[in-house]
User: Fold this.
Amino acid sequence: MAVTARPLPHAAGRAEEHEDPREHLMHDPRPRGEMNAMVLESMHTTTWRYWLATGTLFFLVLTCFVYAWYYLIANGLGVAGVNRPVYWGIFLANTVFWIGISHAGTFISAILRVLKVESRRPFTRAAELMTTFGLVQAGASIFMHMGRIWLAYWLFPFPNERALWPDFHSPLMWDFLAINTYVLCSTMYLFLPLIPDIAMVRDHAKGWPKVFYRLLSLGFRGTEGEWKNLHTAMNIFAFAIIPVMFSVHTIVSWDFAMATRPGWSSSVFGPYFVIGALHSGMAAVAIVLFLVRSTMKNMKYFIRPEHFNAIGKLMLMVSMAWAYFYMNDYLVPWYGGDKWEKILQEFTEKGPLWWLWYTMLILNIVVPWAILWRKKWRSTPWLLASVGVLINIGMWIERYVIIPESLTINRMPFTWQIYIPRVEVFLTIGTVSLFLLLYMLASRIIPLVPVWEVQEGQIAHTLRRVGKADLPTLSEIE
Amino acid sequence: MSEHVSLLALFEDIGPASDGIDKLRALGVTDDQMNVISGIPFPGRVLGRPGARTNVPQIALVGAALGALLGLFLVYGVAYLYPLQVGGQPLYPVPMGFIATFEMTMLGLMAFAFLGLFVDSGFPSYTPKEYVPEISNGKIAVLFACDQNDEKRFADALIKLGAESVARAEARQL
Assistant:
């Protein structure tokens, strides 16, 4: 029997898409001196819009963070909405939310570095900064929740005046260890690849900034030994910080899952929290990159639609994984038929806060699935950033549903009471403002683009003629 | 009696720089007597140089071991010193030991990798060093020692291979 091959059908009138490889940063190299100048110009250029935004954020931090926290400390936790049965309110929702945001930095930087994903190069630092500044907000939120912050040292493992050491049987102590490990390690991880770029800024600085950058660059010149040590240390960090990242949010989830109460006692909470963290974190990276690209000079050269496309794909993948884990977390209690779990699920879906649950599902699943499947839409910076904002609202609601809303329903119906936040609302605005303010200030102090990593990537990338096309080729240079 | 001097040859690109290194070797400069300073890391094989040694992994491993010991102390040492019975759990629970030990091990590993970079690279160091700021703009410097009587011969050879400049290396405040 003769074999016939039918030609593939071509869509009428639709030309095959040819992408010019030079549209990609790695195939559009510029001299190092020029790239340095571009990054330095972006650091030194401050328009009236920058000062207006910084001033507004500073005002919000003073009022909603500093004053509101002072008010909380001076008057006690009674000015917050937390009360029986909802002892854990927005402060804890914020803590989980900000730790989630901080996961993206490690994910983008460490995992993509280990897997040698080249599109990571220009925006690893922007993501790592999110980790550090996000953890600052998470830490502040815990202390806010603590109320009597002057007793915070009781968490530290040394004998206090009562000779009572912290109890390492408690998930809260595991959390203390994990978050502190993550804060310290991610800050060191942020600093390591920054050293050569600070040395570059030092070489171009004059006056007192030169003294500042000289101190910060530690005497780095770029000798073979220094590069070898730096590269080795960065590799160790990239591999080691990934399991720490997974452990942190797993341990955060155990703060809830170790309690035998409806809505919390779940064996899938660990991975569900980790994927939730990545969901909000990836979305936050999209927002930050959009802001950096559209507000800072020369950033359109470094951060291109290809990078938004790459992040958009990750966001879509993570959104699907989140939906899967959410179903896991939902299905098992539903199937089990426990009376209190059933009441809580009905309260979540049909109670007075039903709209929160539906909004969460729409923003976390429907919106990304509807928009991110298409490359053209993924690659549109403002659209991806908008999806990022919506996902973050959805993920914040998810934490709200898990923490204060779940606490509303317990095994003692006479205590049921809906939580109404009070000073927490201002403090939430305060933490968001502080995060943005720190980012705005950092953008003028340190290079947000790791220039040496971009140049390293551009040297490793070449175009090779295959048939009639110039195909991107990557050499192993690292 | 002739003296040794340090020369710094500046190259625009990596190709001429690695040719220059070969030439220096042919002229009798050993690998120990030269160093390459660049704005991005080049592996030894790219430069035709023996790979640089690092002690960072060993230092990091020591940190990991110390961290593990600290983690074990926190869980079991604290329970031994200050026994506190909780919820019918054993005083020395194995599963909980994993958590603190893991976190402290990783913290020790990374903190010592960070410190290892400082120790092995001699950071921080603010004394004057042989350096030119053009390096951070992409130039590649080859720093080497030679007999002062041979200075011109070395410089001419490197200029011929594409060096932009060859001059006595001056220690300067970075």
Notes: Chain A has a mean pLDDT of 91. Strands of chain A lie at 461-466, 469-474. Residues 35 and 451 of chain A are 7 Å apart (CA to CA). The longest strand of chain A covers residues 461-466.
